[in-house]
Amino acid sequence: NSITWSAMVTGYSQNGESLAAVNLFSRMFSAGIKPSEYTIVGVLNACSDICYIEEGKQVHSYLLKLGFERHLFAVTALVDMYAKSGCLADARKGFDCLQ
């Protein structure tokens, strides 16, 4: 179920297993399981940790599709990912959405 998948993605991300978190999220997506906001946060943090900016951009698109663009934790993780990867204009856009 989605809770178990989300717990695993978040757990991997929080324990320095960022590549495993991204890979598991990809499998979750392929299986058609809808993530929670917290799963999105975990996978964005993982993308940030391992400089997977293209994957992070895909998660950003998915975040918008899910309607999470106004969710504080998700957008904060998005801003963090863009800022850490040097995409400051994109980070600023996310920050401005929080205003």
Describe this structure in a few short sentences.
The chain is mainly alpha-helical.
Describe the sheet with the most strands: none
Compute the number of structural domains.
Answer: 1
CATH class: Mainly Alpha
Q: Look at the helices and sheets and give the structural class.
A: mainly alpha
If you consult CATH, what is the topology?
A: Serine Threonine Protein Phosphatase 5, Tetratricopeptide repeat
Number of beta-strand segments: 0
Describe the structure.
The protein is mostly helical. It has a single domain, classed as Alpha Horseshoe (Serine Threonine Protein Phosphatase 5, Tetratricopeptide repeat), CATH 1.25.40. The chain contains six helices and no strands. It has helices at residues 2-14, 18-30, 37-49, 53-66, 72-84, 88-97. The protein is globular. GO terms for molecular function: RNA binding.
Can you tag this structure with a few keywords?
single chain, 99 residues, mainly alpha, Serine Threonine Protein Phosphatase 5, Tetratricopeptide repeat, 77% helix, globular
Reconstruct the topology from this structure.
Layout: H1 2-14, H2 18-30, H3 37-49, H4 53-66, H5 72-84, H6 88-97
PPR repeats: 1-35
InterPro entries: PPR_At4g14850-like_plant, PPR_rpt, TPR-like_helical_dom_sf
Protein name: Pentatricopeptide repeat-containing protein
